Every structure is written in structure tokens, then in C-alpha cells.
Amino acid sequence: MNNNQSDIYDELMSKDWITNLDESEYGLVRYDEPPSYETFIRECFLKNRPALFTANCGLMNQWACIAEWLSEDRTKPDFDRLINLYGSMIVPVTKCSSNVTEYGSDDNKLTMRFDEFVHLWRNNDTTAQYYCKDWHLQKMSDETKPLFYSIPIYFQSDWLNEKCLAENEDDFRFVYMGGDGTSTPSHMDVLGTYSWSANICGRKRWCFSKPYPIEFIQEPGDIVFVPSEWYHDVTNIGYTISINHNWFNAFNIFRIWKHLCLTLDDIEHRIEDCRSLMSDTWYEHCQVILQANEGMNFISLYKLLYIIAQRRITGDNTNKHATFDLWIIEKLIQTMLHTSTFLYACDFDTLPQRPKALVKQIHSYIEKQKQ
Ligand SMILES: O=C(O)CCC(=O)C(=O)O
């Protein structure tokens, strides 16, 4: 990402906004024309506020999947074409039912061939029951093919998917396909990440609940930004296809860290009674459980920070955003070094670089940039 909004980055690097976020304004921000990236930073990232980019913003105008996946009038899926393209792929499908209200419950998760799913999706009797979600279609397609969509500037600073792609790991880029009435029950996104969701066709009813109630309809061509740690449920209206990413960056990384710390506290409480049985491996065990529950723990977060830092240091060194990323990473590693559980749980010899050495490397890079 090359975004030299120098003024805002200089401003952010000179004040303590991390622990003093202004969350006094919380209503949905509606954009009918594309805001500048700086405006989005100020109105949404810094206030952790949800946003709706309406189709008038034109953010999806050139997306290849719109022409490829939809009927000629672009109002509904071209089922036969979708089967031709992806019929034999195995896809994750959730069986929606009114008595499953718990998000992520394993009882209702299935896998099936995509052509079987389309059969259920287009059939009136089953359309409201089967929801193909969290499908890593881009990752599963031939990686040499270009994205069938492009990522709007507002969502391009994405440390999570950047690291997953660099390490060839499972990513957080998804396709959702469902019929009228399919839904996702109330939840907060994994790790307290942000998400964005773009409607290719169909409509979605969004209900944010915590911290504030907000309801609205997302039309075809609209993109929703979900801030960190906002609870929401979503119901599809008509045949709906959407593309969705979960991600974090410099603006919410401290929330991700706080989320991991709170989850670790909870794990420690739950298995307190085993502590005396495993005195010297207690902290490592808790980290193993944290990784299993959240897909991340202190060590894997540190490794992610290391990867992003090295990419920024070796990348385009005139890019202010890169320096800003490094500034936040340095701050977070300093915080981790003051957290006793991080010190107890991590064997620094197994890390790709010792935290203090990384802090020093980042610090001297930032100082050089100032000259
Ligand atoms: O579209 C859906 O069913 C759920 C989307 C969602 O929860 C999200 O984007 O965070």
C-alpha cells in the first residue's frame, strides 16, 4: 500500500491516541461518495465506528466477479455458470435453523461439493437453510489468477492477511452465498478484528447490538465496515452473494492484544485447578489453549509483528504509512515486554528475533527516516 498522507501520520505519531480513542460518536457513517483515506481514518478507525459505503461510491464498479457470477441483468446469481466455474470444489456450508442461535456452533457445520450446495440454494424448499460461508475461494483457486475483486483503499492496510499470504497460511478472505432468510447469529468477529463485507447481489439486514444498537439494510453494491468488537447479526434478503475480509492493522492492533490478554486470563481461571500438576509448563499450556481457541497466541502475534516489521523495513522507505506501522509495532512490543505472562510464556530463543533487538532495529529505522 502506498499512501502518503504524511500530515495525519505525523500527527498520530506525536500524540497518545492509542489509549485515548474518541468513541463518543458511534452512529453509522454513511458515505455516498468515496471519502479520502484520511477522512476514513478520522471518522471510522479512530472512533471505531461502523460505516456504509453505498453503491454510489462505485467501489465495486470494476469487480470481475460481478460480470462473471451474475445473470445478465446483474440482479441474481447465474447458478449454471457458478457450477461450471466451481462445481467440484468442496465448500463449507452452515445449516441455518431457528434454534441455532449460537455463533460458530459445530453441530450445524457441513462440507459438500459446490454443485450440491447450489442445488439446495436454488431450491425453494431448502434455500433458507443452507448458507455457504467462510469459503476461502480466492485461496483455493489457482493463486496465479488475479483477485476476482479489488480491495478498496480503506481496507488495504491489513497485517493479518498480509502475514497469512506471506507465510502461505489459511487466510481471512471469504465468499458468502445464501438464500432468502439465511443468517449469521449475533457475534463479535474473531479476535476483535475489523471486517468489511461487499454485496455482489441480494440485500442484507444488519443489526448491531453492542456497544450500540444500529439497524440498516445493505443493498447490492454497498460495502459495510464493521469496527472492532462490535456485536452484530446479519440476515440475507433474496439470493445473496458477498465478499468479506477479517483483518487488523495499526489502528486496532492494541485491541487485538487486549482481547488476547483477557482471553488468556479467562483460560487461566478455568484451568487453575491443574496448575500444581504442571508447574513449569503452566504458561506454555495456557498459550497452547489460547492458540487453539483464538487462532493466535502471544508467540504467534509476536511472529506476525516481526514479519510485518521486516516487510516495512525492507520495503519502500519513503512510505509514511510504513513508518507509522513500525511506530505502532514498536509500542506494542514494548507493552508486551512489560507483560509478565508474555515473559513467562515465550522462550525468546525460539523467536525469529529477540523482542529487544527488534525494538532497537525499528527504533533506529524510524530515527533514520527523520533525518
Ligand atoms: O454476511 C454474513 O452472514 C455475516 C457477515 C459478518 O458477520 C461480518 O462481515 O462480520
TrEMBL record:
Reactions that this protein is recorded to catalyse: L-lysyl-[protein] + 2-oxoglutarate + O2 = 4-hydroxy-L-lysyl-[protein] + succinate + CO2
Highest taxon listed in the record's lineage: Eukaryota
SMART domains linked: JmjC
Record's GO cellular component terms: cytoplasm; nucleus
GO process terms (BP): positive regulation of translational termination
Domain JmjC: 57-264
PANTHER family with a match to the protein in the record: 2-OXOGLUTARATE AND IRON-DEPENDENT OXYGENASE JMJD4, ARGININE DEMETHYLASE AND LYSYL-HYDROXYLASE JMJD
Protein name in UniProt: Jumonji domain-containing protein 4
